[in-house]
Amino acid sequence: MTSKLPVRSAEDVDETALSYSEIKALATGNPLIIEKCQLEMDVNKLKILHASHLNQKYSLEDRILKGYPKEIKRLTETLDGYRRDSQTIKQNTPTNKETFPPMMISGILFAEKAEAGKAIIEQCRAMRSPEPVLFGEYRGLTMELSFDTFGKEYRLTFRGVMTYEVKLGSDIHGNITRIDNRLERIEADIVAEEKALVDVHTQLEAAKSEVNRPFPQEQEYNDKTARLKELNILLNMDEKDNTILDAEPDEGDIALSASRSALSLGR
Fold this sequence. Notes:
It is a single chain. By secondary structure, the chain is of the alpha+beta class. The protein has one domain (17-237). Helices cover 63% and strands 12% of the residues. The protein contains 7 helices and 6 strands, in the order ααββαββββαααα. The chain has helices at 20-27, 31-91, 113-126, 172-184, 186-211, 218-247, 251-266, and strands spanning 103-105, 108-110, 133-138, 141-148, 153-159, 163-167. A 6-stranded antiparallel sheet has the order 2-1-3-4-5-6. The longest helix is centred in the first third of the chain and has 61 residues, at 31-91. The chain is elongated, with a radius of gyration of 41 Å. The model has no long low-confidence stretch (mean pLDDT 82).
């Protein structure tokens, strides 16, 4: 019903309506009728499997032409954005990890972590609207401050080629740690996107090889369909012959008709 795999089918025992001649042939054990009934069930099942195979083929063709190329393009652009942002962050980060990278907040440069943390808290308290506002710059990326009215929390959004979001708390040093942790995770994002891109290319190649796979029961389907057509032709011929024979009067009917004619003449 949904055209999805795996195929699930149900059979109605009253689906096939037999003609009088077929019922008569079954009663007399006509092997052609018995074979026809079995073939009809087999062909119906094969039709379902064949339709499922075609649906899967069309789905793969659509993915090959549209889905996979679109996903490859998206992942490639995302990966490029992460790499460029990562390079920007590295260029604006001191080689000594103990040294705090200066943070620009509302036009003021803060060289100390504690002072920068306090400035973040003060800017949050001074906000009068939940709409994003330009906040400053840190490690080569611009910052926007906003308030999430649903979650009741302040957020910093870092913008480079890509965007990165950080939820702020009330701790001075904790906010700086959250910011640094999120920017450092860009390297993990790059690894994840690289793996996803390889996976999509693998899926694309698998789809290309699978889309040309023939229906595994194609020969059986064709043979049984052809045989069913032959049986229908044979049984229709038998039915016509039986109809003609049934229409012919027997000898008793002819004699009775002749007697009636003689009596009519005698009168």
